[in-house]
């Protein structure tokens, strides 16, 4: 070096900061997290850089939060976990997101490749990438700091493009501490452009679908949660109203049109499924939730025609022949269909009048049950009061899980706005409630009422501490019937409680009190209504322990037919 010359200092960055910068560049600000080796400092640095880091008590709950965040925002919800056991805990949530078509990225710390491949016995050693691949939409590993920008860009695009789903991103511990020149690091970052491009069907497919719908005497539209995810709410409403066809909404699609809409046939569901001659599926699939489009509830087999909008062509003909497949995104398909519906002839009044009559009869039959003030409470009396509360608070978000608690609530509580009802989704996974409620509050800042069966609450109940720690406007309502389905089973041997029975009249409200929140016991519908209204008004973390008659439930809610029964009598 020449006399008097000074060495130029080069500014460096590292893997920690490149991950943060790449996420922020792509508009991802909220992280759902459980701290631990090797990602503890990554969480700290994310918070220091202005990201909101919500730290949970268990990775499954953090993952469930990330999954529903993806559904609500159409951006990947991000869950950050430790290696091996933490990764495995988050993997159920990642698979749940993929099954439900919600964009999510699970970022997990991991052991180094050279140790894992030789099985040297490193701390929490596991080939996480290999385990994740079959259970999500895509899986990537980043080994070099200069590839962080590409890795995160690929994960984002994979999560949201086409049929959305879960993506796993493997981050070995050594990557986080790798350094490169800051200027080169900045150049390596990628802002993803148009990650979920529109996919239009052909005009021939549109014409076929319209001809099929036009030829129906008894058409029916089924809206699924995919239609809610699409966030083209005005277009969905325009299409449904232009068609004049009756519609039903799957549980998480409720509110796309208000449940008091004159075309809504939810209260006449059995009639319209059985009698319709043409069914159009928008964001719904003919899976087990719709009995695969067959069986007694669908009437005579092979007499209906199906129109199906789905972005994945492999979904077509999965259970029934699809007469008019529309392969594309919902907004593009409905835009093209609506543009060709000038002068559309609406269905015969005989069909719509029959549905209106059946709807009125069923609503009247239900109304008396919903006014019950019995003590101990039954499901109808309790949910009747909550129905009134949601009518008065249309912006409140309903989170719902359980067996009877879920099944009764989705048919009783009306929704008037989209994406206000969040539940267990396609897999029917129990334990999603606390994570879902937390993410709903974080992403929207709206009040959340989380209606839980006591069994479902047990999967994730410790997260009431998280609710209190972040002071979130969440009211947890536990329908406490002292058991799974019912609290009345007995052990024939007289030795133990029955497998489906819990501690009688457990004081769940004291859990919330233990962490500084409000805990209330509700023994009557009046108590329940008062407590939930107070919680919404106060926006304080609240848990209402609603004591339900142990005999009120039914086996497996409304899907008891899926529970095999033994025909063998032991001698």
How is this structure best described in words?
The protein has about 575 residues and is α/β, with parallel strands linked by helices. The chain contains 22 helices and 19 strands. The protein folds into three domains: about 180 residues, Thiamin diphosphate (ThDP)-binding fold, Pyr/PP domains (Rossmann fold); about 160 residues, Rossmann fold (3-Layer(aba) Sandwich), CATH 3.40.50.1220; about 180 residues, 3-Layer(aba) Sandwich (Rossmann fold), CATH 3.40.50. The strands form four sheets. It has a six-stranded parallel sheet with strand order 3-2-4-5-7-6, with helices on both faces. A six-stranded parallel sheet has the order 15-14-16-17-19-18, sandwiched between helices. Strand 2, helix 2 and strand 3 form a beta-alpha-beta unit. The radius of gyration is 26 Å and the shape is globular.
Concise overview:
With 571 residues, this protein is an alpha/beta fold.
Q: Please count the beta strands (DSSP E, at least 2 residues each).
A: 19
Number of helices: 22
CATH superfamily of the largest domain: Thiamin diphosphate (ThDP)-binding fold, Pyr/PP domains
**Annotated CATH architecture of the largest domain:** 3-Layer(aba) Sandwich
Instruction: Give the percentage of residues in beta strands.
Output: 15-25%
CATH topology of the largest domain: Rossmann fold
Tell me the strand order in the biggest sheet.
3-2-4-5-7-6
- Radius of gyration equals 26 Å
Low-confidence runs (pLDDT<50, min 5 residues)? Answer: none
Give the biggest beta sheet.
6 strands, parallel
Determine the mean pLDDT.
95
